[in-house]
């Protein structure tokens, strides 16, 4: 950890020296965690902020690519996605300076926002959050599926009497999903932290997404 922090400080100093040569009033500061109110299921932690009179406010992202044989101007796809979404997109910066540490020195490549790519990634992340994360948080759906697959004593007849995302037997109170294409129909109220059965029409998570 100390070595990594020391390397980060060294790269930041080299970056600041390079910017001072061609930019006016350069300021580099550390950053924290950002969770934008419009996208609460994603957070951003850039490696720092940068600001100058000529370019305005941006962020920096420092990496040490595992494959040191790559072209120094090449940005790995996973890093590009991270820059566009977690840094430029969520923090609303004008640009991101991608700082890569190589044996021959440090390279800097400026990346500007790509709105279409940002929207594509956010849409995919939201689907994953709603279908996977929420289901697991509310009812341990995927953990239950894993335990079912590893339980060799479960028979097909037993499976017919399992309900809800958690795939466990009937346990009052139960709530019924009114979605026409609902694959489960009946759910445990406790799995959704419901103290009473809703009097209005109720939809499960998956059916709400289809509306």
TrEMBL record:
Gene3D superfamilies, alphabetized: 3.90.320.10, Zinc/RING finger domain, C3HC4 (zinc finger)
Entry-linked Pfam families: YqaJ
All residue ranges annotated as the PHD-type domain in the record: 161-210
UniProt GO MF annotations: zinc ion binding
InterPro entries: PDDEXK-like_dom_sf, Restrct_endonuc-II-like, YqaJ_viral_recombinase, Zinc_finger_PHD-type_CS, Znf_FYVE_PHD, Znf_PHD, Znf_PHD-finger, Znf_RING/FYVE/PHD
Keyword Amino-acid biosynthesis: no
GO BP field: DNA repair
Keywords: Metal-binding, Zinc, Zinc-finger
Record protein name field: PHD-type domain-containing protein
Classification of source organism: Eukaryota, Metazoa, Ecdysozoa, Arthropoda, Hexapoda
